[in-house]
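TA notes, week 10

Several of you asked for a full example with nothing omitted. So below is the full record: structure tokens for the whole chain, then the designed sequence directly under it. When grading your own attempts, check the secondary structure regions first.
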């Protein structure tokens, strides 16, 4: 690889050190850095060619400020601002667009699995159609484990779940109540028919704003719905409705405490990467996921373009990156591909943009790279007579 050095930082220095020792072919060093402090992040990133932001999405703006300070490209996988929504995060990021352009830099935002792969495929499908009135994204998974295992940030999961979900309906942005819009959606086997509900997600913020730049085709509707079993959705809703996952500080015996911090801190600790790998190899943890992107020429018609994405499952990921999982691999690898494109000059567009803002040929090459890394992607076109 042409990479000379990888610097890894986290508020938990021991965690950063353990990861640095396992990955990077001896090129990785670890540091303790607070992502909320742009000066500290800039000091850490001095001399870098790209700054990859994989912390909680609330801290995208200070990390972007640091990238501008050290004059390097920027890449992240999600967005938000403290106390705000995904859309607030997007708008805050776009306020830095001209500064990145003036510096000759690219800030590529929301580049994981979803958002990221979903955006890229939605843009390809949109370009394939003469008219596109609706884009609907649906996601679900099946997860089983003999012991408690967290696959990604529970703080982000609970905050997304209780935020009124952004929807683009009749050509304008609106918000749906958490767990609203429940319907039953037919996923391909082995997932089958499952309930899905509105879920706060970045695609609904960026696609309505960026797809029309590829041509005005009558886009009027974009939404994202997450699927699970009825029992799982009801249980999650009960936790949210109880207030136990609230990020709003409350006075508890004279101390301001966020309920979500108490909830997350009391969750069982995750097994070590080696333990997770051993359990996965033994089939004691299984995890399969699917993402469906449907593009409709007309609102009331079946989809004219459909993409189905199956990230590598737990067992496949374990053989590639022991201790990782479907979500961590499925999020980091797509981002890494776009990161490579920033480093090698494939991406020349400057400013702040999501993947759908990249040229078609770049997105098509990216899809080929995903398939080469174990993602199964199907494309179905329906031509109505």
């Amino acid at each position: 690889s042409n990479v000379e050095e990888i610097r890894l930082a986290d508020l938990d220095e021991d965690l950063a050190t353990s990861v640095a020792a396992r990955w990077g072919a001896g090129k990785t060093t670890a540091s303790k850095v607070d992502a909320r402090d742009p000066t500290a992040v800039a000091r850490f990133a001095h001399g870098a060619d790209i700054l990859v932001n994989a912390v909680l999405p609330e801290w995208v703006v200070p990390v972007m400020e640091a990238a501008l300070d050290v004059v390097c490209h920027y890449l992240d996988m999600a967005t938000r601002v403290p106390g705000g929504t995904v859309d607030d995060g997007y708008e805050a990021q776009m306020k830095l667009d001209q500064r990145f352009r003036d510096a000759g830099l690219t800030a590529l935002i929301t580049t994981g699995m979803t958002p990221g792969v979903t955006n890229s495929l939605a843009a390809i499908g949109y370009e394939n159609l003469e008219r596109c009135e609706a884009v609907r994204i649906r996601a679900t998974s099946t997860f089983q484990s003999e012991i408690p295992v967290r696959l990604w940030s529970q703080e982000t999961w609970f905050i997304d779940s209780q935020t009124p979900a952004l929807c683009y309906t009749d050509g304008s942005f609106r918000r749906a109540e958490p767990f609203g819009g429940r319907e039953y959606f037919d996923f391909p086997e082995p997932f089958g028919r499952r309930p899905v509900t509105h879920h706060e997600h970045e695609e609904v913020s960026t696609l309505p704003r960026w797809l029309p730049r590829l041509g005005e085709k009558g886009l009027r509707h974009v939404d994202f719905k997450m699927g699970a079993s009825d029992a799982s959705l009801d249980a999650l809703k009960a936790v949210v409705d109880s207030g136990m996952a609230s990020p709003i500080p409350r006075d508890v015996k004279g101390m301001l405490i966020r309920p979500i911090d108490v909830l997350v801190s009391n969750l069982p600790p995750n097994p070590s990467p080696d333990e997770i790998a051993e359990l996965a190899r033994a089939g004691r943890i299984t995890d399969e996921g699917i993402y469906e992107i449907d593009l409709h020429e007309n609102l009331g018609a079946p989809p004219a373009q459909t993409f189905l994405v199956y990230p590598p499952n737990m067992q496949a990921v374990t053989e590639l990156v022991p201790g990782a999982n479907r979500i961590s691999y499925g999020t980091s690898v797509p981002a890494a591909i776009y990161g490579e494109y920033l480093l090698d000059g494939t991406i020349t567009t400057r400013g702040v943009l999501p993947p759908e803002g990249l040229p078609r040929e770049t997105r098509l090459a990216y899809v080929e790279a995903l398939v080469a890394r174990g993602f199964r992607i199907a494309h179905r076109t329906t031509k109505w007579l």
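The chain is about 35% helix and 25% strand. Use that as a sanity check on your answer.
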